[in-house]
Design brief:
- This protein is mainly α and 131 residues long.
- It is 73% helix and 3% strand.
- Strands 1-2 form a two-stranded parallel sheet.
- The protein is globular and about 55 Å long.
- The termini are far apart.
- 23% of the residues are buried.
Length: 131
């Protein structure tokens, strides 16, 4: 059953949400505790509805393309990918929290954000590794 066309306002809001998500994903590459993958996947989902051109660009992007196409094909992550992601977050959040040990509120905030990031990754379905 074909879907009704999306209004110009909804398309614009999806584009805005996709762009904001992509920006957060890019920041997550360098900011410990902020997960990159969920934001990039959210951007891809928004762009798929709002702008096929931006969705195609994201699919063919050197850094994010493999992540997006793998997700769209399997809707899951391998255990190895999840282990690497959570381990990297654990190391980076721990180092950052240690750096803020003199500011307990900042350290607590970093630890909470890191736990949320690990929880998000852990909730993604796990699939068997490729044969």
């Amino acid at each position: 059953m074909p879907q009704a066309p999306i209004s110009r306002t909804v398309r614009w809001l999806l584009w805005l949400a996709g762009t904001l998500s992509l920006v957060l994903g890019v920041i997550g590459v360098v900011l410990p505790g902020l997960p990159t993958t969920p934001f990039v996947l959210l951007a891809a989902a928004c762009y798929a509805k709002a702008s096929p051109r931006l969705h195609a660009w994201l699919l063919h992007h050197r850094l994010f393309g493999p992540m997006v196409s793998d997700w769209e094909q399997h809707r899951s992550l391998t255990r190895r990918t999840k282990t690497i992601a959570i381990s990297a977050m654990l190391v980076m959040v721990s180092l950052s929290a240690w750096g803020f040990r003199h500011l307990p509120w900042a350290m607590a905030g970093l630890l909470i954000v890191g736990l949320v990031g690990a929880w998000v990754v852990a909730r993604i379905p796990t699939r068997a590794p490729p044969a």
